[in-house]
Amino acid sequence: MLIEAQNRTIALQARMKDQGIEAAVFTDESSIAYLAGFWGYLGIEFGRPSMLVVKADDAPVVITPLMESEMVGEMTWVQDVRTWEDAGQNTWGRALEGALGGLPEELWVERASLPAIVRNFLDERFKGAVLRDIGPVLGAQRMIKSPLEIEVMREAGQIAGAMMSAAHQSLHAGAQEWESALAVIDAGTRRAAQFLTAKGWERFVSPMIHNLQVLQSGRDTSMVHRRASVKAYERFDPVYFCFCNMAQFKQYKLGFDRMFHIGDVHEADVRVQEAAIAAQQAAIAAIKPGVHASDVAAAANAVYKERGYETGYRTGRSIGVAYLEAPELKAGDETVLQAGMTFAVDGGISVDGQTAGRIGDSVVVTDTGCDYLTDYPREVMVTDS
């Protein structure tokens, strides 16, 4: 993975040279993981920024808190790791100035995710510099996944499948939502651990599945992103699991959603769920190289209209080391699909206060269409009890 991260950085430097970009500052965890191969468990919200400075004609520089530096030094291929401290003169601002090597006329940063603490410093310290966005430059590179990235995402798909199977098995009248959430975490963690060793770079990769489970049941199913509660399942309840903030491995995130029905299902719920599945399948059938992203969304929207439903959902989003990458499968996005792109593709209908129909899978675009990265039955599923 580290050799691949190094090669990605070299490729980015070539792009920067072509576009006349001398240096860029990366602050987003997903970008740093993609290029430098490391990530941590302390984020910018603690006021402790980690940064990666990439110059077109020089070796990159990692800037990290002193307390993180031992782990970072072991995780990254970057040789120049500079540390800073919470108190005293050895600040991250000074480290950043030193890495940039002066007062540049323009600063290339990730504008969409630049933390306020860093933005404020740049505005004050480099008042004459123009802030430009490096995000689209790296984003274009991240659109097409390498064989190694796709392999990791397939492993993430197997982990997600174990999670969904555990979710399914946890469902019965009288069980509570939080019990299903624990079953998901346990199954996913156990499956992830099977892919890992305790050697080299992998010893820093945690198998632990985390984040609050998006789970809702009964009339609350229409709420889309409610978290698991102490609510007990009842017969006929629809139950929705979304793993979009949990199905990940080695920093690669997938989208994966399924719905189940406890013991039996109302005909109205069947109609909604079948429409969502049909819309998702129409979208997936439309995915192939040369197709516009908006055309995939149009295929799904045609099914919703035919079935008599409206939806406010986008049909899908690009996935990778970030939860949301470009392009998106929605009206107005005219990106032409290419082999190696990866997407979460959804079918989604909400009937407020009543029910919902949802399904989601992750796919990779191939030379002739697409392959699934996630797998679980794509049908109306009813539990035994």
Characterize the structure shown.
The protein has two domains: about 1-140, Creatinase/prolidase N-terminal domain (Creatine Amidinohydrolase, Chain A, domain 1), CATH 3.40.350; about 145-370, Alpha-Beta Complex (Creatine Amidinohydrolase), CATH 3.90.230.10. Helix content is about 35%, strand content about 20%. With about 375 residues, it is α+β, with helices and mostly antiparallel strands. Strand 2 and strand 3 (about 60-65) form a beta hairpin. The model has no long low-confidence stretch (mean pLDDT about 95).
Topology:
Layout: H1 2-18, E1 23-26, H2 29-36, E2 51-55, E3 61-65, H3 69-75, E4 80-84, H4 92-100, E5 106-109, H5 116-125, E6 130-133, H6 135-142, H7 147-169, H8 177-193, E7 214-217, E8 238-242, E9 248-249, E10 252-253, E11 257-261, H9 267-286, H10 293-307, E12 316-318, E13 325-329, E14 342-351, E15 355-365, E16 370-372
Helix pairs in contact: 1-2, 7-8, 9-10
Question: What's a concise summary of this model?
Answer:
By secondary structure, this protein is α+β, with helices and mostly antiparallel strands. 35% of the residues lie in helices and 20% in strands. It has ten helices and 16 strands.
* Helicity range: 25-40%
What would you give as the CATH superfamily of the largest domain?
Answer: Creatinase/methionine aminopeptidase superfamily
CATH topology annotation of the largest domain? Creatine Amidinohydrolase
User: Which structural class should the secondary elements be placed in?
Assistant: alpha+beta
Quick one: how many beta strands?
A: 16
Count helical runs.
10
Please report the first level of CATH classification, the CATH class of the largest domain: Alpha Beta
* Main pleated-sheet profile: 6 strands, mixed
In the sheet with the most strands, the strands line up as: 4-3-2-1-5-6
CATH architecture of the largest domain: Alpha-Beta Complex
What letter string, H or E per element, gives the SSE order? HEHEEHEHEHEHHHEEEEEHHEEEEE
Measure the end-to-end span: 45 Å
Mean pLDDT: 94
Radius of gyration from the CA trace? 23 Å
Uncertain parts: none
